[in-house]
Automatic annotation (TrEMBL):
It is found in: Endoplasmic reticulum membrane. Keywords: Endoplasmic reticulum, Hydrolase, Membrane, Protein transport, Transmembrane, Transmembrane helix, Transport. It comes from Entomortierella parvispora. GO terms for molecular function: phosphatidylinositol deacylase activity. It is a multi-pass membrane protein. One of its GO terms (biological process) is endoplasmic reticulum to Golgi vesicle-mediated transport. Residues 1-12 have a biased composition (Basic and acidic residues). The keyword Cell inner membrane does not apply. This is GPI inositol-deacylase. Residues 384-622 form the GPI inositol-deacylase PGAP1-like alpha/beta domain. Residues 115-127, 153-171 have a biased composition (Polar residues). Residues 72-83, 139-152, 184-210, 244-254 have a biased composition (Low complexity).
């Protein structure tokens, strides 16, 4: 058989001694088995001068050929020897052992080990080559059926027992002690097969193929010379020895340990049906029942998680579109003279139909694209408004500012400006919205792009401010602007916060930042180390920025707006800035809490949703003030506006409206009035009252005495009227002017004659309408409509805040026939109307919560609190029923659910008419302290009901297990990648451990199957134990409470069994000093303690280490199972990846083979054939290619591009190795398959490294598309990519990783893999970008192992050793 892929000759240096040739007297001849495709070839026998003869290959072709066939009278019991131990030559094992210089030592070792037998002399025996179908199976190290008649004996030299069996384990690093049987002559060796003697009797001399297995580590010492290794046939061990067995033409006789023989049929019924080692010699997936089962379970679970994330526990999308007529003007004057990034980014000015036109001559305007115009760089642009800058996010557009800018302009020109002109103010100005064009750059994937954007923005802010140098000519009293209002979306908010850390930042140029859907705390994808560094830099600066009287951020306000669970791009938890910013300077809020909006939004809709854009636009107009050089109101006024616009207003922390100072006197004898008993609710219009069916223009007063001194402490009111001066309904606070007419505690009072009243809306806030009959289908299905007639007004007033008043008077300005308005008011006790349920997540998970009578008595407002439910990973389903109300109700029951970890409120109108209500919320994020906002703990459900109906609510709260599955996806999205890579490293570790023991390099799928049954479940238990122990650690809680009551507390608390509160200087129950400009009075000392503790942790890695930073972060003990579940899912993902990659390589190999055969006469067929037949390119060509690639990486392309090229080259190597293995001869087949399996395992690892490199490559390609050719300074590191390039080039030649049974090499190999496993468990999720750099260390070590046995490495080692000896040997020793 010809082997075209052999391109060099072997020169075997072993000395040949005398040996016994095959003859008819029963001596056993030895043949080399090299038959392929059923062909035969001959071997030339040469007799030594000593009378012995040994088989020797006849030339190059005969080296891989032999007599072999089912009808052969003399068959070989040995298929091949260790390619390294026998110097890669197909020699007669008897001749090699006999002629070896260490033959006598090995024979002596055999006798010492007692491996002798009383069988007849092997001189009368004959060896037989088995049928190919009867080759034995490798049994993964399990030995049985000792066939040499003696019990298993431990080898004293190698420390492991040696079994002689037809099911012998693969020979490992040890040297088999049983080379031949007892009384065997050194000139002949028995193969352990039975053959007829001269007398016709059958004699058995059992041995095993492992008898001839020479240790890999001693291969060079057998010949005393350095062996020459075939590049294609490297490190295959003694794999071919596994297939030797007894003759297929006769019954096999084996000797059990007791020395008695037993006869076994040739079919071997006790052996498994599918040989395991055949899988090691094929390209099979290695599928098994455990693998298939785990794969199906993992894929089903992963599918459920994705389905739950997208379709369960998701808010209704009730956003309305915003329509505008925008125009964009690109400022060409902002060129390279002002910024180094003018060729990459651009600056535009937005205009709408409400805005004035740009004061630029028409000949200096050119239409660039649709609605985009360019302003000539020579034109002088002089805007007269207040500057604001919009920063788009990842792949965002500069045009995304249009909705918010349009609503701000409309509000200014239609409402704000007429109001200011009415009161005579001339200092109001509109907002000039500038926007940045980043060419839709992928800023979330590349930290260097974030830094470039920040540098560009500081230059842009300086340029914008320069445009306003002469813009105050209309009003010289107005100061020149010194700062710009910032509006950032997504990663644009991160860029806005990073402006302060850049060298070109001008102090004071930014003092107000509003962000939408921004991941402030953790990046959405942590695959780039520069992004992690930027986040750390920003965090350190902002923590220090609020400390001290001269803090650089003391006047900066930051508001973070999140869209809720509709946003599946950025987790709402990561937008929580309460860890970074004190409440006096900012807060986080969800759009569902916006008054007049009450809707959630996805990642992009948060900018164009009309309800949200209207609230944000109005807020921006309210906070700006052209009379200040900062162009915004002072910090205290800004924060007051932010809270009133963005928060619901129900909580105590919301600023209350100021009361008018004007008062009026009401003579009750002159008006229509009704005295209302404080013990009963006021219902207007009253039921069954004919008087109110008459149209009247006269006002009617309802006088309600305030019941001071009773258990009633709150006044509540719900109406669908607008409670403002001049509207149909007004509320007044009145004082009785009648002498000696006091109100009793019960509220009873004699009729006053005159009242002195002041108009007050009592801090009325808007809430969604909940009509008895929904007006639209969307409203009946959970939607919330806003606008006129679609909102209620709600008042919840503490009586101690109005203790100077005696009466609350409701003034109704006339009546109309058929009018549908209503008013319901009552005094109540917050304590009696609030029920706290001290249940836990585990209890709800097991039993749920049911209550059939809530509240105890009818009430307008009732509250249900769950203080121990604060984990956002669990979702719930609430069912509310209220049946039996016969009397008509003014409104249907409505519910609001609130979370006290963030400002998140959601309203559910008509709650009793729904089948169920989803209860989910956001909270804190892993690896950070938990912030407790002012208010209660846990979650709160507040109900509004018509008290005229005495029927109570029936509640049922159950855990939505399926809906909870989707919450882990967006919160722990990086866990899947990290644990998937962890599974690959565990598999590689097992493969290399088996390889160094002398076993074949097992296929990736087969090794996963073994690990599923042995290691993975143990590893899952380990992860569960770590997660559980981690959850027992106390978690720091920072609780901020206002000082609006009799006292408050603030400080650190432990979340588990023990709670420790560190009080401020006021002590327990005392009043703490407020932040400058803050009415809430948060404990500044507590915030500073938290900030300084985090600063100390960030000083060094050791001081910053916390138990809560490892694995998935500190979580509830209930979620101990998350880590092992993620691990099991990752196993299924790895199986899927393995099947896809294996199928890809096999498909490409089959396609190339087909094309090369079918198109052999054409150029393409010849080219493919040449590629498959040649081992590699020339050395010079490869060196030139590598040098060119390195030059490109160092100058132009990022190293991520070179890695992708290396992966493509590696795929070619995998395809070539598969084709080589499929066409290898019998003596070379195991070595070829070992190399293929090794390359495929590395391919899986490379494939999982692509997510770490492809994002940056996408950014680079995007820059090329906009003709930006500036290189990335941080992505041209040759040391990052050189190991991968050298490694791919090293294995292209057909080299195989050598076995390293030596203790030092094996320890380093396992040590590197163990270190990677340890890091991935502890810090892989948080610092997943380290995966690529740890893989680089592993590749460097593989490269060292790959090259350590080359001539160059050996020569270099000898040179170093020589120089070392010359340098450090003593002179006296040299002379000696």
């Amino acid at each position: 058989m010809n082997h075209d892929d052999e391109d060099h000759e072997y020169h075997h240096p072993t000395h040949r001694g005398p040996s016994t040739s095959s003859s008819s007297n029963g001596s056993a001849p030895f043949h080399h088995t090299g038959l392929s495709n059923g062909k035969r070839s001959s071997m030339t026998s040469r007799t030594s001068p000593g009378g012995g003869g040994g088989a020797r290959p006849n030339g190059r072709q005969g080296a891989h050929q032999s007599h072999h066939g089912p009808d052969s009278s003399h068959s070989n019991g040995l298929s091949s020897l260790d390619s390294h131990a026998l110097h890669d030559r197909d020699m007669d094992p008897a001749e090699l052992i006999k002629t070896s210089p260490r033959h006598h030592a090995l024979q002596k070792l055999t006798h010492q080990d007692g491996m002798h037998s009383s069988n007849p002399s092997p001189s009368t025996e004959q060896t037989h080559l088995p049928r190919r179908s009867e080759r034995l199976r490798y049994s993964n190290g399990h030995n049985s059926n000792n066939s040499n008649g003696s019990s298993s004996t431990a080898n004293p030299q190698y420390g492991s027992p040696t079994y002689h069996s037809e099911r012998n384990s693969y020979p490992s690093r040890r040297l088999s002690a049983s080379i031949h049987s007892n009384n065997a002559s050194p000139t002949s060796i028995s193969t352990g097969s039975s053959s007829p003697t001269a007398s016709g009797t059958s004699t058995s001399t059992p041995t095993s193929p492992s008898q001839y297995a020479l240790p890999y580590s001693h291969s060079s010492s057998i010949s005393g010379q350095h062996h020459h290794r075939d590049k294609e046939e490297s490190s295959s061990g003694t794999a071919d020895l596994l297939y030797a067995t007894s003759s297929s033409t006769s019954a096999a006789t084996t000797h059990p340990p007791n020395g008695r023989s037993r006869t076994r049929s040739k079919s071997h019924p006790e052996l498994p049906n599918i040989p395991l080692l055949q899988s090691c010699r094929s390209a099979s997936v290695g599928c098994s029942a455990p693998m298939a089962t785990l794969f199906l379970i993992s894929m089903a679970l992963l599918g459920c998680i994705f389905h739950s994330n997208f379709y369960r526990q998701v808010d209704k999308d009730n956003c309305e579109f915003t329509y505008m007529q925008p125009k964009y003007f690109k400022l060409l004057g902002f060129d390279r003279e002002r910024t180094a990034f003018a060729g990459k980014y651009g600056l535009l000015l937005f205009r709408d139909r409400y805005d004035y036109e740009v004061p630029v001559p028409s000949h200096m305007l050119k239409e660039y694209t649709n609605n985009v115009y360019t302003i000539d760089k020579e034109a002088k642009v002089r805007p007269v408004g207040i500057p604001a800058l919009f920063i788009p996010g990842n792949a965002g557009s500069a045009k995304q500012v249009r909705s918010i800018a349009k609503e701000a302009s409309r509000y200014y020109y239609e409402t704000y400006l007429p109001e200011r002109l009415r009161i005579g103010s001339t200092m109001s100005r509109p907002i000039d919205f500038f926007t940045v064009d980043f060419n839709e750059e992928f800023s979330a994937l590349h930290g260097h792009s974030l830094m470039e954007q920040a540098q560009f923005l500081n230059d842009a802010i300086a340029y914008i401010l320069s445009l306003y140098e002469d813009n105050r000519s209309l009003d010289p009293s107005l100061p020149r602007p010194t700062s710009v209002l910032i509006l950032g979306h997504s990663m644009g908010g991160v860029v806005a916060r990073s402006l302060f850390t850049m060298k070109n930042y001008k102090p004071g140029s930014v003092n107000t930042i509003v962000t939408a859907a921004t991941p402030h705390m953790v990046p959405p994808v942590t695959l780039d180390f520069e992004i992690s560094n930027i986040y750390n830099t920003i965090e350190n600066f902002w923590i220090r920025g609020f400390l001290g009287p001269d803090a650089p951020l003391r006047n900066v306000s930051l508001v973070s707006i999140a869209g809720g669970n509709l946003d599946i791009v950025v987790n709402g938890d990561s937008g929580n800035i309460h860890n970074l910013v004190p409440q006096s300077n900012g807060f986080s809020v969800f759009t569902s809490s916006f008054p007049h909006a009450w809707v959630g939004a996805d990642h992009v809709a948060i900018l164009w949703c009309n309800q949200i854009a209207t609230v944000i636009g109005k807020t921006l107009i309210d906070i700006v003030d052209a009379s200040y050089s900062e162009q915004v109101k002072p910090l205290e006024e800004r924060m007051k506006i932010f809270r009133n616009r963005f928060l619901t207003g129900i909580e105590d922390h919301v600023e209350k409206a100021t009361y008018p100072s004007d008062s009026e006197t009401i003579e009750l004898s002159m008006v229509d009035y009704t005295m209302v008993d404080s013990k009963h609710p006021l219902v207007y219009p009253p039921k069954n009252s004919a008087a109110h069916d008459v149209e009247s223009a006269n006002p009617h007063f309802y006088v309600i005495p305030i019941p001071f001194g009773s258990d009633m402490d709150t006044f509540n009111l719900v109406t669908d009227y607008s409670l403002e001066v001049g509207n149909r309904l007004e509320t007044l606070l009145c004082v009785d002017q009648t002498p000696d007419n006091d109100v009793s505690p019960s509220g009873a009072v004699s009729t006053p004659s005159a009242l002195s009243c002041k108009h007050s809306n009592l801090s009325a806030i808007p809430i969604p309408a909940s009509p008895v009959q929904p007006s639209s289908l969307s409203q009946s299905q959970g939607g919330i409509r806003t606008g006129k007639g679609q909102e209620f007004r709600f008042i919840s007033q503490k009586l101690n805040m109005i203790k100077d008043s005696h009466y609350i008077v409701i003034k109704v300005l006339g009546r109309k026939v058929g009018e549908t308005g209503f008013v319901i008011a009552e005094f109540g006790s917050e304590k009696n109307s609030t029920l706290s349920v001290p249940t836990t997540t585990l209890n709800l998970w097991s039993n749920g919560f049911r209550m059939h009578a809530f509240p105890e008595r009818p009430s307008l407002v009732s509250t249900l609190q769950f203080p121990n439910i604060d984990n956002s990973l669990v979702t719930y389903t609430l069912t509310v029923e209220r049946q039996g109300c016969r009397a008509p109700q003014k409104f249907a029951p409505m519910m609001r659910r609130s979370s006290w970890l963030m400002y998140e409120d959601r309203y559910t109108p008509n709650v009793a008419d729904r089948e169920s209500v989803d209860i989910n919320f956001h909270g804190d994020i892993p690896y950070f302290e938990r912030i407790q906002l002012p208010g209660k703990k846990g979650i709160e459900l507040r109900f509004w009901m018509d008290p005229s109906c005495p029927v109570q609510l029936s509640l049922s709260l159950q855990v939505d297990r399926y809906g909870s599955m989707g919450k882990v996806l967006i919160r722990y999205r990086m866990v899947v990648l990290v644990f998937t890579y962890l599974v690959v490293i565990l598999t590689l570790r097992a493969q290399f451990r088996a390889w160094n023991r002398g076993e074949p390099f097992k296929p990736f799928g087969m090794m996963i199957t073994q690990l599923i049954q042995s290691t993975f479940w143990k590893f899952s238990i380990l992860l569960a134990v770590i997660a559980f122990l981690q959850s027992l650690q106390a978690r720091t809680i920072v609780a901020f409470d206002p000082i609006m009551g009799s006292g408050s507390r603030s400080g650190y608390m432990n979340s588990n069994a023990e709670e420790e509160i560190l009080h401020g200087p006021g002590g327990p129950g005392g009043r703490y000093p407020a932040f400058p400009g803050s009415r809430e009075g948060l404990d500044q000392d507590a915030y500073e303690r938290m900030a300084r503790a985090r600063i100390a942790r960030n000083e060094s890695w050791f001081s910053s280490f916390r138990v809560g930073d490892v694995l998935l972060g500190v979580n509830d003990p209930f979620f101990w199972f998350l880590a092992p579940v993620f691990f099991q899912i990752s196993i299924g993902i790895v199986i899927l990846i393995w099947m896809l990659l294996n199928g890809l390589v096999r498909s490409v190999a089959a396609l190339l083979t087909f094309v090369s055969k079918r198109g052999g006469r054409y150029v393409i067929g010849q080219a493919i054939g040449n590629m498959l037949s040649k081992r590699s390119r020339g050395v010079r060509r490869r060196v030139i290619t590598t040098i060119i690639l390195f030059i490109m990486v160092a100058t132009f392309v990022p190293y991520q591009f070179a890695f992708v090229v290396a992966v493509l080259v590696h795929i070619v190597s995998c395809v070539r190795s598969l084709l080589t293995a499929q066409n290898s001869s019998t003596s070379r087949v195991q070595a070829a398959w070992d190399r293929y399996h090794y390359l495929m395992s590395i391919f899986v690892m490379f494939f999982l490294l692509l997510p770490c490199t492809l994002p940056v490559l996408m950014v680079w390609i995007r820059n090329l598309s906009v003709q930006w050719y500036e290189p990335f300074s941080s992505d041209h590191r040759l040391d990052y990519i050189a190991p991968f390039i050298f490694f791919v080039e090293a294995i292209t030649d057909g080299a195989m990783i050598p076995r390293t049974p030596e203790k030092g090499y094996a320890s380093i190999t396992m040590g590197i893999l163990n270190y990677i496993i340890f890091f991935l468990i502890l810090f892989g999720v948080r610092y997943s970008w380290q995966i690529f750099f740890m893989s680089r260390i592993w590749i460097v070590w593989l490269l060292i192992l790959q090259l350590k046995d080359t001539d160059m490495a050996i020569g270099l080692s000898k040179t170093i050793e020589h120089h070392y000896n010359r340098a450090f040997n003593q002179p006296g020793k040299k002379q000696k």
